Amino acid sequence: MTLQPLSLGQLDHRAEPALRNLLKALKQMGHHFVPPSPTTHARVLARDPSRQARSLRDVFGWSLPFARDLPPASLLDALLQADLVVEDKGLLRSRVRVATLEGELFLHSAYPTTREDAVFFGPDTYRFAAFLKAELADVPPGGVLVDIGAGSGAGAVVAARLTRPRRTILTDINTAALRLARVNVQHAGCAAELVLGEGLSAVEGPLDLVIANPPFIAGEDGHTYRDGGDLHGARVALDWTQAALKRLAPGGRLVLYTGSAIVEGEDLFFQAVKALAAGGPFDLRRQELDPDIFGDQLSDPAYADVDRIAAVGVSVRRWTA
């Protein structure tokens, strides 16, 4: 089955009540869906190219076209009025999906996520959440938490529940992401400030905890959630790291998950982070979470000298004195 990418549309504040009601309804119905990679998603749909949705999990998980009488009428009416559902060859399709993580539901973009305004949620989100849980168990409560490039806000929710900050700030350059993140964070019972801007440029003051899951694919293909820039896709991650190191309060931490190019056995991103932190009041730790992800990218000329792309977690702590 070939599904056309759907824009998230205007997605202004008028859509938020419908989105909140959608999450509430799906929660009550026991909705559960773990989004696979786009490649896996495509292979599953290819098993039955004519398939249409038979359940709300098909609608808000697999992004399948559905008949008008499938969802509860009140839910469908709200989604139609908010322009969150579009016509598709006599059927309907949702502009959003809903994923399950840590017992909560998170709105993100419908499959396929190839639009410039797409808000991605997939295997990297789950790896990021697991790394946060492993790293933040001993963080004292009450600080300022910033999630750079927050996307759906899943990382911020996981981190906030672990650390109980006095302020939680989510930044992103994608207004659609911030709209979805606001609803997701509220649904999870967390309070947060949302800031439109690149990196930490629009955030003031010292920071106690900075988390990030930056884009890390080399090149610029128009997808902000993927494009990591040059340095084998590490440019954005390195820029965010540099900005965070300058802003960490004494005892503050940066916890970052990314995909890193391994060349001649060396993690080039982590080598660059060590160079940034050299001589500074920092302790660094690296963990390789998965030795080989996005292997299909190695066919791209930008990765001509790369052995593999590893999923890597990097933690930086600023000394207290």
CATH class of the largest domain: Alpha Beta
Mean pLDDT: 93
Number of helices: 10
* Termini gap: 59 Å
Class derived from helix and strand content? alpha/beta
Helicity level: 25-40%
Describe this structure in words.
With 321 residues, the protein is an alpha/beta fold. The protein has two domains: 13-109, no CATH class; 123-318, Rossmann fold (3-Layer(aba) Sandwich), CATH 3.40.50. The chain contains ten helices and 14 strands. The protein has helices spanning 16-28, 38-46, 56-60, 73-81, 123-135, 154-163, 175-187, 230-233, 235-247, 268-277, and strands at 85-88, 91-94, 96-101, 104-109, 144-148, 167-172, 193-196, 207-212, 217-218, 227-229, 248-263, 266-267, 282-290, 308-318. It is globular, with a radius of gyration of 20 Å.
Give the SSE map.
Elements: H1 16-28, H2 38-46, H3 56-60, H4 73-81, E1 85-88, E2 91-94, E3 96-101, E4 104-109, H5 123-135, E5 144-148, H6 154-163, E6 167-172, H7 175-187, E7 193-196, E8 207-212, E9 217-218, E10 227-229, H8 230-233, H9 235-247, E11 248-263, E12 266-267, H10 268-277, E13 282-290, E14 308-318
Parallel strand pairs: 5-6, 5-8, 6-7, 8-11, 9-10
Antiparallel strand pairs: 1-2, 3-4, 11-12, 11-14, 13-14
Helix pairs in contact: 1-4, 1-7, 5-6, 9-10
